[in-house]
């Protein structure tokens, strides 16, 4: 039976797009406390079912797919620009396709403005009216209001009119930055993107017998299974090691590992990879906020995802991408040694014009990663880094990075990195890394 929290989430998900909800309303309809209703609404917001806007409230929005994450809803625009909704609140859930800056004559402006657009304009009421009639929402900059006719028209057409105190250039920059940040999020692979869903997950119950494990093992070829109770909550994990030496008629709950490590769907695959290596885990149950199983994720799933990430083109370039793009490998397919050259660009400096601590750690990490990956032909994550010293390196200087493997085993490695400028050591660090086998 579903918990109250899950029932509230199901109720919110069943509401029509654009419906306004409140803590008090949910508490009354679902017969729960306001605290329970508040937590469920916040969870729904995290899942993308609703959006909360200051001075407006919480509304049901359409959950965006990951491939369309670069598109914003008008509700999100209100939050981005700290705006005030003047009219058309019923359309806040809608998604905008593009935004148009109204800095031209009306006739020319309308050639670029159409349905699903957002016109960014000042106190030009005629332009605002024409945009609404063309099916576009309006964002008024400079803190200006609009006339009553436009407000009524916005309500009739369910197209928001939003007012913000920021100027047009600032607003365009803020929206662009929000879209850019979402593009970066799109590239970060989460557990929910690659998990095996609960419908396809083979699991055991605490009162099953060990002979059931043997049946599933023969059928699937796997040796690790989550153990779930009647409420679909994960209560244990059972492996071949757990059942070893026990009779087939013994109950699973007697041999299973209780309180197993679990992850949520919003955990990044990189974090899961580190967890699996550190704990020596082959499979992890994926659970929701109530501890109920949503699926499982295996080491093979993680490896495939990590390899896929490396092959993907990056559409949202992060500061790490900008830094590592400067790195050039001076060694011609060298196996034992690699030397990397890099120019210290203005983006890599601190307020004093010398290489920043963050840029330095990114450079040595990427160089060490490449060098060890070339040696082991596997995947790795940095577990610990110790920087012994870093001398000031001026902007536009050329530095050379020399990674050297001190020790490497099946699961762990130790790398020494020295950084030179004009033959003089300007930085030195030690990295401890975890290695992930390909199989």
For the largest beta sheet, what order do the strands appear in spatially?
A: 17-18-20-21-22-19
How many helices? The count is: 16
**Total domains:** 4
Write down the overall mean pLDDT: 83
The class by helix and strand makeup works out as: alpha+beta
Residues in helices, as a percent range = 25-40%
CATH classification, class level of the largest domain: Alpha Beta
Protein name: Transcriptional regulator
Keywords: CBS domain
Pfam families: 4HBT, CBS, DRTGG
Domain CBS: 195-254, 256-317
Per-chain topology:
Layout: H1 4-14, E1 20-21, H2 23-30, H3 34-47, E2 50-53, E3 57-60, E4 72-73, H4 74-80, E5 84-87, E6 95-96, E7 98-101, H5 106-111, E8 117-121, H6 125-133, E9 137-140, H7 148-157, E10 161-163, H8 168-187, H9 191-194, E11 196-197, H10 210-220, E12 225-228, E13 234-238, H11 240-243, H12 252-255, E14 257-258, H13 269-279, E15 283-287, E16 293-298, H14 299-311, H15 319-324, E17 328-329, E18 340-343, H16 357-376, E19 379-390, E20 398-408, E21 412-421, E22 424-436
Parallel strand pairs: 7-8, 8-9, 9-10
Antiparallel strand pairs: 1-3, 2-3, 4-6, 5-10, 11-16, 12-13, 13-14, 15-16, 17-18, 18-20, 19-22, 20-21, 21-22
Protein name: Transcriptional regulator
Keywords: CBS domain
Domain CBS: 195-254, 256-317
Main traits of this protein?
CBS_dom, five-stranded mixed β-sheet, DRTGG, single chain, six-stranded antiparallel β-sheet, Transcriptional regulator, Ser_kin/Pase_Hpr-like_N_sf, CBS domain, alpha+beta, 4 domains, Arc Repressor Mutant, subunit A, 439 residues, Udp-n-acetylmuramoylalanyl-d-glutamate--2,6- Diaminopimelate Ligase, Chain: A, domain 1, CBS-domain
